[in-house]
Amino acid sequence: MTDRKRMSASAPIGVFDSGVGGLTVVREIMSQIPSERIVYFGDTARVPYGGKSKETITMYSEQIVRFLLQQGVKAIVVACNTASAYALDTLEKEIDIPIIGVVKPGAKTAAETTKNGRIGIIGTEGTVGSRIYEKYISKVAPNAQVVGKACPLFCPLVEEGLLDDPVTDEIARRYLEGLKGSGIDTLILGCTHYPLIRTTIGRIMGENVTLVNPAWETAHALKDLLSEEGILNPEATHESLLEHRFYVSDSAEKFSRFANTALKYENIFAKTVRIEEY
Ligand code: DGL
Predict the structure, then answer these.
(1) Model confidence pTM above 0.85
(2) Using a 6 Å cutoff on CB, does residue 18 contact ligand 1?
């Protein structure tokens, strides 16, 4: 290994989302590649991304990437489907470190999971409207039929911590009613916030529908990418969560409380960053 690669192997991985949703990807990275340190950014002041334009999401993503690069990250995970759908192509051209999104790995798993060729995708208006999942699914399973449904209220419900709540249950029932009758056997949780309400979604869809969480595949793809690039951290150094760093654009306290519950740790102390200055 060259000195440059050895240096970058010990550098952290940058992960970002519009808010707390990307923590579902962080959880998978921590479990599949525990030797890696993470610098997380949640854009809690500007969440939700789901209904905003491609131009706005690209500008937000570029600011966050500039911030993460300043933190010395060796690779970036766009742990947000909306930003992956709208901004990943642009970001790939602008930076010279490895960067991956969550859409491609999730689409591949869904295409490989379905038995009857009918796949549902739930996500934000941006992700569903972009039809990006269809594009990647058709590369693996050209005959698959994909049914999309935007669920814009899920993200704010999760950000508010209403994970197991009658309100979330009622809204989920309304959103998922149509999908339930559509004959799908596989449903992609196409927003990184949704795994946090997976139990509710699974209960409504029933046991004949397999839920695909792109976070697992993304962490797996990240591990492969780091190893192809020769920058996988060989030392299992991190036992203490203090080595990870968490940043947000709004209240750090609220985020820390949520993150400690979602990741089942006690010692996350996020910091607030003025992201619009990047
Ligand atoms: N968690 C994000 C996603 O995967 C965005 C949700 C939002 O901000 O609307 O799309």
Answers:
(1) yes
(2) yes
